[in-house]
Amino acid sequence: MAYHPTMSPSPSVRSHAGPRRRGWVIAAIAVLLVGGGAAAWYVVGSGDGDGDGAAPVALGSAGRDGVFEFVVSEAKCGTKTVGTGAAAATAQGVYCLVGVKVTNRADAPQTFDGSAQKVFDGTGTQYTSDTGAERQANPFSWTEAIVPSETVAGRLVFDVPMGTKLTEIELHETLLSPGVRMALR
């Protein structure tokens, strides 16, 4: 019998490409579903923490994200250095120091991550905290656990361009929590 290239293979010869290909398709779908879910969580969860798009919490009032309750007391900008001596930190622009009280409302000690906090100016430009400068501006480390019902007061430090006018701070329980927006004026 002559071989003809247009003939299909014998039914006794099975290709194993089908199950492998099916496995890759299932894996690709799983990745898309997980990625899509994460993107949806980010879009929905990146709001102001109260879920309804309300105005930021007023300066001096309590706001909450997760187990932490926050009260912002003040925001002062214009400082070029924090700390003293050789350990002093120097801003590239100027430092804005935000006075904040953090209360742990959980039943177990929780760590407040200063690096998860953000401030915004009137144009919506976001700035993250300068954790090195925060070590100089506070008598404690923000990375120490806060015991249940304890309130810790300190300053978050942000290095911003000179002339920046901050309007809001977004405080977070964790890096991935939705956060709560609080007014700085």
Short overview:
The chain has 185 residues and is an alpha+beta fold. It has helices at 17-45, 131-137, and strands at residues 62-65, 68-82, 89-104, 110-111, 118-121, 126-128, 145-146, 151-160, 166-171, 180-183.
Structure in words:
- The longest helix has 29 residues, at 17-45.
- The chain is built from 2 helices and 10 strands.
- It has a domain at 62-183: Immunoglobulin-like (Sandwich).
- Mean pLDDT is 82; it is low at 34-51.
- The strands form 3 sheets. The chain has a 4-stranded antiparallel sheet, with helices on one face.
- It has 185 residues and is α+β, with helices and mostly antiparallel strands.
Number of strands: 10
Q: Please, how many helices?
A: 2
At CATH level 2, the architecture of the domain at 62-183 is Sandwich
Shape verdict? globular
Radius of gyration: 26 Å
Compute the average pLDDT: 82
Uncertain runs are 34-51
Determine the fraction of residues in helical runs and give it as a percent range. Answer: 10-25%
**How much β-strand is present in the residues?**
35-45%
Main sheet overview: 4 strands, antiparallel
Identify the CATH class of the domain at 62-183: Mainly Beta
Q: Tell me the distance between the termini.
A: 90 Å
Order of helices and strands: HEEEEEEHEEEE
Instruction: Briefly note the structural class of the backbone.
Output: alpha+beta
| Largest sheet strand order | 1-2-3-8
Q: Per CATH, what is the topology of the domain at 62-183?
A: Immunoglobulin-like
